[in-house]
Structure formats: structure tokens, C-alpha cells
Amino acid sequence: MDFFSNTNVLFFIAAYLVGSIPFGSILAKTFAGVDIKTQGSKSIGATNVLRVVKETNPKLAKKLGIATVLLDALKGTVVLLAGLYYGVSDSTLWAIAVLAVLGHCYSVYLGLEGGKGVATGLGVYIVLIPIPTLIGAVVWIVCAKVLKISSLSSLLGLLAVIVSATFLNDGLNIGSNVPMYLIAFIIFYKHIPNIVRIIKGEEKKVI
């Protein structure tokens, strides 16, 4: 029982369970009556919400897409802020961040299926490495406007975060960049099908 009374353990469990909440699926089902897990890319992320709901209700699709991004980002942010409030260590904060992203990508509520992790990754990065994350956000916005390919823009923005954080931060206050790289690896791994389509020139644009 002492295991479950340990503060760090409770935060780790909370991070994974909160990260697992499939907000995109919930919003699309509740407000548009569609199951995004069986349509489009079958992802629970904002891009698939936008693409699927747009077929029947373009105005609602944009609102639900924005709401999905915000809520998915907040999943990681909220638990991290709670951790900061309780004064947990930097190492614990980074473990929380990794588990929140894992929860989104491999949700316990969806049989370990999930989204691509971009918004949740953004939510944890903005708390732990804010300046590199803002740089990455600018890169993402510019690329999205120019390329109009959501996956490629997200990955380029993520790459900008990692590169800038590597130069601006010395070990993320924990003596290692591994947790930051691990989050990026998870997101890139979940994007392998997108990367293949990008290479083949088959990735769809978001118009």
C-alpha cells in the first residue's frame, strides 16, 4: 500500500490516466455524432477531427479541432502544474511529461490505441522548456501556412523544439536530455505512416 501512497507514483499514474483521455473522440461523438476512430486516419487527434467532421459541418469542424488541440495540450500541462505546486523534482516532472504523452498515444481507454502526441507533447514542453517550445510553435505555424500538410508541419516544429532546446538547455536541469528526446521519439514513431506518405507524395493537405 505504501507504493500507492508515494507522491511520485500517484503523479505517474495520474499523468498516464489523464493523458489517455481521448478528447478528440469524445468531442466528435458528442457534438457531431461521428466516430473518428473508424473514419479518416482513425486518429483521435485534432487533424482527424477536423477532416472527418468537416465533411458534414465545416464550421463545427474548426471549433472542435481547436478544442481538441487545447484539451489534448492541457492533459499534460495540468498534471505538470500540479506537480510543480507540490514541489516534485525536475526528474519527476519529466517522467510525468513522458507518461502523459504515452497515455495520449497509447490510451488505456482505447485498448492502447491513440493519437500522434503532438498537442500533448506541446503541452508538456511549454511547461518544461518554454522558449524552445515557442520557437517550435512559430516554425509549425509558418510551415502550416506554407506547406498546408499538418503532419509535416508538426514534425518540423517538433524538430525545431529539439534543436533549439539542445542548444539553450544544459541537461534540462536533470543532467540529461533523454526525456525530451524520448517524447520526440514517441511522436515521430507514431508519425511513421505519415512520413512514408510524405516521402511518396501522398500525404493529404489540410485546406
TrEMBL record:
Alphabetically ordered keywords of this record: Acyltransferase, Cell membrane, Lipid biosynthesis, Lipid metabolism, Membrane, Phospholipid biosynthesis, Phospholipid metabolism, Transferase, Transmembrane, Transmembrane helix
UniProt-listed Pfam families: G3P_acyltransf
Domain of life: Bacteria
GO MF term list: acyl-phosphate glycerol-3-phosphate acyltransferase activity
TM helices/strands, residue ranges: 9-28, 64-86, 93-112, 118-142, 149-168
EC number, UniProt record: 2.3.1.275
Reaction equations catalysed: an acyl phosphate + sn-glycerol 3-phosphate = a 1-acyl-sn-glycero-3-phosphate + phosphate
Gene Ontology process terms (BP): phospholipid biosynthetic process
GO cellular component: plasma membrane
Signal peptide segment: none
Functional pathway: Lipid metabolism; phospholipid metabolism
Record has Transmembrane as a keyword: yes
Leading EC class: transferase
Transmembrane helix among keywords: yes
Membrane topology label: Multi-pass membrane protein
Localization of this protein: Cell membrane
InterPro entries cross-referenced by the UniProt entry: G3P_acylTferase_PlsY (IPR003811)
Main localization of the protein described in the UniProt heading: membrane
Oligomeric form and interacting partners: Probably interacts with PlsX.
Family, per entry: Belongs to the PlsY family.
Primary role: Catalyzes the transfer of an acyl group from acyl-phosphate (acyl-PO(4)) to glycerol-3-phosphate (G3P) to form lysophosphatidic acid (LPA). This enzyme utilizes acyl-phosphate as fatty acyl donor, but not acyl-CoA or acyl-ACP.
PANTHER family the record matches: GLYCEROL-3-PHOSPHATE ACYLTRANSFERASE-RELATED, INNER MEMBRANE PROTEIN YGIH
Protein name: Glycerol-3-phosphate acyltransferase
